[in-house]
Amino acid sequence: MSENLPSAVNLDALAEQVHAGFNSANRARITLDRVKEAITSLDLSEKPPPPRKSRLCVRRLRIVGTKDLEGYADPIPINYDQRFEDGVNVLLISDNDVGKSSVMKSIRFALTGASDYDSDVRKWIADIWLEFELDRHRYTVLLSTRGDLRCVLVAGSEARLIDDLDASVPVVIDAVGSDAVSDGLRHFFFQRLGLTELSWLQAPPHGSGAAERRSTSWLTYFQALYIPDAGDGYLICDPQHAMGNQDGMILATYLGLSLATPLFELSLERSRTKRDEAALKEDVKKNASEAEQARDRAQEELKAVRARLAALERALRERRREVEESTPAQELVRVTSAIVEKSAERARFEAEREDLNARLRTTRAVERRLREAVALRLHFTGIQVALCPNCDTHVTDEAIQQEREAHLCRLCSKPALGASPQDVAAAEAELYATEAQLRQEVAARDAVSSRVASLRSELERLGSRVEPLQRAAQQGISYASPTAEEEDDRQRLHEEAGRLRAEIDRAERHIGERASSGDQLETRRKILDTVQDVLSKDADRRNEDTLVRLGARAQAIARQIGAESISDVRCSPMGKVQLKKHGQRTTFTEIRNQGERLRVKLAFFVAMMLLGREQGPGRHPGFLMIDQVGSAEMVTEDARELAAILRAIDADYGTDIQILCFTAREEFAAATTSSKVYGPQAGRFAF
Q: Cα dihedral sign for 20, 25, 26, 29?
């Protein structure tokens, strides 16, 4: 499996490499067609890189409304109006709780439709205008919270209220309600940024019920474009986003990693298969336990039935012994006893014959089904459709004959898809085994029938001798012979024994059938595991250059801002980030120091954003918001170093990216030019 796949991956080449990678036992058990069937829905086409990098840049934010502050008798009008430039922008207000984060949340609200204001601020905001550029085109998002949330996205700059817009305005989105607004913005940004909707399975709360399928939304992808306050525990740093590898989906998409989409699809299918396999195993265990209990119960009942039959036979033997000891009646007793024994034997064989007939009916039904399947080359399912499900018209005999001879569907007359030679061979083998079983059962039934006929003749012969002997020893014979009640009881016990034997057979067959279903799921999981291993190795090769450059950038930035212990930053083809701390392999979540975790995360985000500006498949829009930058255990020297890094980024990439920083730390005034450092607009408050 070390051999690389062709540069243009196709399903046939992948299936052959996966099949060749199995050991000899699995290759004999798992056919190439079975591998192809497992991956037939996999999309291996590579999305070409965009002709030019999409760039998101916020140009102007306006907020209007009224706020209620403690100590003020009347509401205070809000009229916030802030313009932003290319490169690094800093909203610097030294006080805390003065609205810096609310400005950032307003930008996020306008771009995604998701509001996470504090409850008091949510009541203050009435209208928002956000002008932004995407692909060098200017747009304006207008949000109104006056009643139901309404969002209008227009091309160009717009300063009017939503209700004042006229028909001349080029409207891109006009949506009412939170869901409709989020959905409209998702379609817009997915199309413009070339994003893909990927899925993962999420376990239900408290572990009850089936796993839920979740999909990446625009809000999901936007999480990589901003670092909120206390962002050290967000996105790639928390277990919530690690569930289903959703953080990996975000990073792999923005980095444009090769084969990421089919790897995510495989991961989802493997998760689903593993869950189905585990559920089936539990179900098999439960059903097997129930079947074993039913079998054991039937065996105990059968044991009790046989004990009662044995007791009845002992009583009859004792009575016969007493009569046989009477000299005048010895011959009559012998004849009568022989009749009783032969009658009992005949009843036993007749019960056995009925049991064999029941088994024969079942085996013949299986044999007919298999014979028809082989005759039809497994073109059809074997379901005998008699009526059209659309019009209730009866299927004609001619249509049925056409299906058997020409393999044309009895309903639509279309040619059926044939089975593979391996599947047909398997069905023929099963038919051969069933035919052999049928011959054995017929032979056994015929032997029993022959014995029943022989016993009937013998009973007729013995019966002809009874009447003369009865006249000689009527009393002794009557005493030794079974009563009518005893005969009925014996017949009932034999029937009950036959029923219990059939119940035991059914329980054991059920156990075997459930185990076979589990084997099929286990085989599918093994195929998917091997497919993912093959694709992952090939993706490593294809993505090596991108990931090496990403790691080098992230590591350099991390060291510059005080994370000297971090080295060897890596990212897998599925977006899983690993690094070394003091030479030991670790992950973001395993870094316990809050400030260090934030510095490493910030370095990775900035590196990913800068990499997206270079030539290559990346789709990062070059936009990042950082709330309360430098607040998490960052000493003054490190804060100054980070400000210097941001200043260098502004100088080198200022025309191609945008970073919005929201902070109370004066050190970050040096992160950009003075013209891009903004203060409060309402006294000590941002707005």
A: positive
